[in-house]
């Protein structure tokens, strides 16, 4: 099957945070250019893009007009709005870009995004791992009719691209299930520690858990280190994971509770 992309496509990254900059850098070997939209972005974002050697264009509309592939990597709550902005910019293009939604959203969310673009032009992406500057740590799962074309762009890159077939939403479903283990379960430590504090039994609980070989203070500290600066984003991810579970009749309270925990962490001490 012929690729829907030219040999050296222009790739647009929305927006180059830590993960977006790493994705953009990984794509440079196979792209004709990797561009990003500078309007309204922070100095920190601009610096990351510069260090990753990405090319600035004025705004999202210009990026959407020039790119053969647009990769959206943004906070979960913004995924739909970003997709709508790109869809509006390419509405009159005879050759619309492939749109890769690489956000931590529910399958239903990415399917809704799929309706904004021409049939077969949206790819569902799920990054599992940290921003990858060397191979062996991070996997990019892809699903949708054009998943193979996007996966080929990452050949030989630090991101190991894996295809999950043509169903839009499969990659997001995998990410949501995986997030139960990486984010929902660890949130239990913060919840039980907060409850023990409120009841005045934190020291006793720590002593009892120590008999089971569990260091409560270490578990809570590790969670807060991981969540530092990210808790607000993880809350949105847990909301989307909850929606993914509820859609297939699986209890979603784990993820909804985790979202509340991360909002408390993001808000800081009260």
UniProtKB/TrEMBL annotation:
Start and end of every Putative oxidoreductase/dehydrogenase Rossmann-like domain?
A: 7-94
Residue ranges constituting the Phosphogluconate dehydrogenase NAD-binding putative C-terminal domain according to the UniProt record:
196-265
Entry-linked InterPro entries: 6-PGluconate_DH-like_C_sf, 6PGD_dom2, NAD(P)-bd_dom_sf, OxRdtase/DH_put_Rossmann_dom, Pgluconate_DH_NAD-bd_C
Q: Which domain of life is it from?
A: Bacteria
State the Pfam families in the record: DUF1932 (PF09130), Rossmann-like (PF10727)
Q: Membrane-spanning regions, if any? A: none
Gene3D superfamilies from the UniProt entry: N-(1-d-carboxylethyl)-l-norvaline Dehydrogenase, domain 2, NAD(P)-binding Rossmann-like Domain
What name is this protein filed under? NAD(P)-dependent oxidoreductase
């Amino acid at each position: 099957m012929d690729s829907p992309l030219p040999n050296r496509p222009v790739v647009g990254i929305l927006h180059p945070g830590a993960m977006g900059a790493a994705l953009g850098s990984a794509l440079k070997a196979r792209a004709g250019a990797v561009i990003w939209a500078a309007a309204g972005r922070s100095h920190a974002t601009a610096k990351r893009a510069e260090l990753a050697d990405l090319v600035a264009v004025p705004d999202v509309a210009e990026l959407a007009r020039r790119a053969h592939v647009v990769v959206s990597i943004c906070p979960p709550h913004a995924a739909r709005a970003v997709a709508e902005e790109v869809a509006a910019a390419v509405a009159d293009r005879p050759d619309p870009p492939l749109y890769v939604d690489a956000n931590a959203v529910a399958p239903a969310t990415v399917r809704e995004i799929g309706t904004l673009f021409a049939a077969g032009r949206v790819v569902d992406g799920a990054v599992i791992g940290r921003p990858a500057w060397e191979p062996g740590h991070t996997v990019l799962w892809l699903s949708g009719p054009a998943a193979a074309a996007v996966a080929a762009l990452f050949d030989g890159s630090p991101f190991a691209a894996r295809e999950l077939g043509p169903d839009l939403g499969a990659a997001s479903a995998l990410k949501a299930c995986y997030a139960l283990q990486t984010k929902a379960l660890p949130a239990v430590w913060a919840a039980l520690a907060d409850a023990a504090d409120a009841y005045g039994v934190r020291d006793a609980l720590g002593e009892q858990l120590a008999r089971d070989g569990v260091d409560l203070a270490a578990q809570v500290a590790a969670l807060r280190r991981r969540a530092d600066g990210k808790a607000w984003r993880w809350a949105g991810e847990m909301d989307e994971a909850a929606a993914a579970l509820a859609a297939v009749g699986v209890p979603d309270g784990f993820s909804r509770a985790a979202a509340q925990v991360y909002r408390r962490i993001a808000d800081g001490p009260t």
